[in-house]
Amino acid sequence: MHKKADAESAIRNLALEWMHETGYQQQPGHYPSFGAFKTWLETKHHSHYLNFRSRVGARSEAEGWFESEIRDYWRTRQR
After folding, report:
1. What's the predicted TM-score (pTM) here?
2. Which of the chain's termini has less CB crowding within 10 Å, N or C?
3. So where are the chain's domains?
4. Which helix (H) or strand (E) covers residue 36, if one does?
């Protein structure tokens, strides 16, 4: 089991790696798929980062970090 802060850092970094590797492009009304990201994590043997303690649930919290990191990436690129 990972510490929550370590898991967050890893998920955020891996979200950007996933985005670049899969060629994800932001499009109006289209959101990145956390399910596809989770499958990618499993394929890359990184799914252990989803194993941490959380009051709202590790999957839900990791999904929030994933979406936030990708949203922030595109926001900074548009400036």
Report:
1. 0.89
2. C
3. 4-77
4. helix 34-43
